[in-house]
Write a structure and sequence with these properties.
InterPro entries: aa-tRNA-synth_I_CS (IPR001412), Glu/Gln-tRNA-synth (IPR000924), Glu/Gln-tRNA-synth_Ib_cat-dom (IPR020058), GluQ/Sye (IPR049940), Rossmann-like_a/b/a_fold (IPR014729). The chain is α/β, with parallel strands linked by helices and 293 residues long.
């Protein structure tokens, strides 16, 4: 499959904090290649976690990106406005018995002592609820217990065997390469949370397909997640984009910048007197010779 004649890229931050230099790198990287290929960079606000996302962070995202010199088509897609789209995709998986309700808490999963961890370091789910009888599920729902819904990874891989990831630099002269995905290393991932009617994995593949995204450029911290994304694309019959995973911006201790670790934000740098040109230069985006390493 070739890229669309006018390729669509996207930058998709979550408004649960201020953007930092890592976000700036990803946005500038994506914008550069969208322009180089005569395409478009969409802005998507991934705000499904309505408990942590804040309107002021949305406005800060717009402000920081405009300060960097970026623009994007309107309207911006807010994931929190499209839960029906994600529920529709989930219903298709449920109709094929590819998901099941899980009543376990995080503490119970840790106490169960599963067989290792997933690529993000979380305990692999031991499958406690996978084979609950329908009557037991109904009894627990009737008792008011809340459940998250997990993908039955073994059943999914029987349906969509040998998922592959198509990778390429976002360049008209770059030839895509294919590598085997390994979704099983994630175990039975959560597709619908107890408190939110979707998950990152489900929402992102639905959005990319609905928005016609043909090339996904994102950081290496999401490299392993692509295994689950291409599996879901196969299960749902969605067109797989090409993927490029770029380097991460690290702090002085060689750790990935993170909102949760209170990494210095673009707003902090602006208050210190940094200009947008200085940020671009610091990240290697001199207009004449950007360094994409």
């Amino acid at each position: 499959m070739s890229l669309p004649s006018l390729p669509i890229f996207r930058f998709a931050p979550s408004p649960n904090g201020r953007l930092h230099l890592g976000h700036a790198y990803s946005a500038l990287y994506t914008d550069h290649w969208a322009r180089a290929m005569g395409g478009t960079m969409l802005l998507r606000i991934e705000d499904i976690d309505i408990g942590r996302c804040r309107p002021e962070f949305v406005e800060a995202i717009f402000d920081d990106l405009r300060w960097l010199g970026l623009d994007w088509p309107q309207p911006v897609r807010f994931q929190s406005h499209h839960f029906d789209d994600y529920q529709g995709a989930f219903a298709r998986l449920k109709a094929r018995d590819l998901v099941y309700p899980c009543f376990c808490t995080r503490a119970q999963i840790r106490a169960a002592g599963g067989s290792g961890t997933d690529p993000d370091g979380a305990p692999l789910y031991p499958g406690t609820c996978r084979h609950l009888a329908p009557e037991e599920r109904e009894r627990r729902f009737a008792a008011g217990e809340r459940a998250q819904w997990r993908l039955d990874i073994e059943a999914a891989l029987r349906v969509a065997a040998h998922p592959a990831i198509r990778e390429a630099m976002p360049d008209p002269d770059s030839r895509p390469a294919s590598r085997a995905a390994d979704p099983a290393r994630w175990g039975d991932v959560v597709l619908v949370r107890k408190d939110i009617p979707t998950s990152y994995h489900l929402s992102v593949v639905v959005d990319d397909a609905l928005q016609g995204v043909g090339h996904v450029t994102r950081g290496m911290d999401l490299y392993a997640a692509t295994d689950i994304h291409v599996l879901l694309q196969g299960l749902l019959g969605l067109p797989p984009p090409l993927y490029t995973h770029h380097r991460l911006v690290l702090d002085r201790d060689a750790d990935k910048l993170s909102k949760s670790r209170r990494s210095e934000s673009l707003g902090d740098l602006r208050e210190k007197g940094w200009s947008a040109a200085a940020v671009r230069h610091h990240l290697g985006f001199e207009e004449a010779s950007p360094r994409f390493t």
